[in-house]
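Worked Example 4.2. Consider the chain below.
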Amino acid sequence: MIVGLTGRNCSGKGEAVEFLKTKGFYSYSLSDVIRDEIRGRGMDVTRENLIKVGNELRRRHGHGVLAERILERLEPDRNYVIDSIRHPAEAQALSRRSDFLLLAVQASAQVRFERIRQRDRPGDPQTFEEFRQTEEKELGNSGSERQQLDSMEDLANHRIRNETTLEEFHNRLSVLLLQQMSRMDRPGWDEYFMRIAKVASLRSNCVKRKVAAIIVRDKRVISTGYNGTPRGTKNCYEGGCPRCNSLADSGTRLEECLCSHGEENAITQAAYHGVSVKGGTLYTTFAPCLMCTKMIINAGIREVVYNQDYPLNDTSFRLLEEAGVQCRQHAVD
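Applying the procedure from the previous section yields the following structure tokens:
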């Protein structure tokens, strides 16, 4: 999951980040993108420059640019906490991930000012009035590239107060996160197996098209196959298939093609290793051709699930139906 943090200065976002890091979360800050930009320009990393350059990046590259650059660094199998979300477009960009949660950390102005006085950093406001004036400048205006902290609090999925002890703050965070984690979004079996097939297709050595199939029985992968030239022969991309390497038009000169299809290889690999595919389900990134369809039927496979339709396969569909083999599409990106 991705926990995005927003909130005003000294509300406790940094403390939330440190706490979540102890729980296995990887941390990023949208300000990291701005810091990289500032250092690249040879400027000092100050709060004033962070705001100035951040506003400039949003104006030049779009209001969600900081979040979009951070998204490029994220892996789908990790938990992340992302600090310094200051503009609605940044939250919108991060919400492309279904597991994104925007959390606003809140504390009163007086409490936050006292924290600023205690940390005593150079450049921090010295009076409460100076603190309020600085904060008003940072709130931003609707529709502008400037950070909009007031709008962000309204957009947050949850708000959490941080005005008492750290222990209480940590407990509130723990309760909230456990509630969200219990609603984990997991892929269904069709999506799970189809994505495995799509990864397998990356091993294809065919220069024309990358296709793969996997055979599943009892929710367990028992065989995989991808298209390419036969075992022990020159790979297609190394010139092994004359038809593919002459860039023949689709559907032509098929009698010259030396590449085996993904479905064909999944079935023959099972035979090679002595594994029965009878009663299995075949997931393929492309609907099967007629040759592979005949192999699927005779191998005893009971169901075919394909990601993308394949030209000229009406005969294949009719034959599968006549043989009593279920066939359906399950498309994934």
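The beta strands are 2-6, 26-29, 80-83, 100-106, 158-161, 212-217, 220-226, 281-286, 303-308, 326-329. The first helix runs from residue 13 to 22. Compare this with Example 4.1 before moving on.
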